[in-house]
Amino acid sequence: GLYAASARVLGAVTLPVIAMTLSALPRLFREKNSPATQNKNLLRWILTAALVYGILLSILLYICAPILSWLLGAEYNGIEQVMRWLLLAAPAMALRFATGNILMTLHSPWLRAGFELTGLTCLVFSTVLLVPEYGLSGMAFSMVFSEWIMATTSLFLVAKATKKHSTYFPPS
User: Rounded to an integer, what distance in angstroms lies between the CA atom of residue 34 and that of residue 166?
Assistant: First the structure.
């Protein structure tokens, strides 16, 4: 219960990143005929904003974690410790949301599915390995590990996919 509640809180507070990328989707789809530098700058802004938001969110929730325990009640005593572990995943989660939508605008839905599947596989294997030994902390670390694998994989895939689209990165 503590892990599920913490993960739901983290998912809920990262919704602004999803909103930001969804609001940028029409422009990203429309920008095919715009100068390459304009698209490149837009992608940089989106990714930078997602990363900065994720970092600031982690710091704020780390400070406010004891309040979360109080808000949820006595049944959730200890949630602040789980939340603090999961906060290590917040910047990666924000990047994953942004890069996933960017890959869709680059006509690469299979790449998005691929990095999500990679993250799911990492989550399952790390959970099987860590939870028996470390319990709830192992589950939290499994999520952190999985989110960072997805974030780094998706950043690599966005860089690779943008090279295929001359509107994002012109040929050298």
Answer: 11
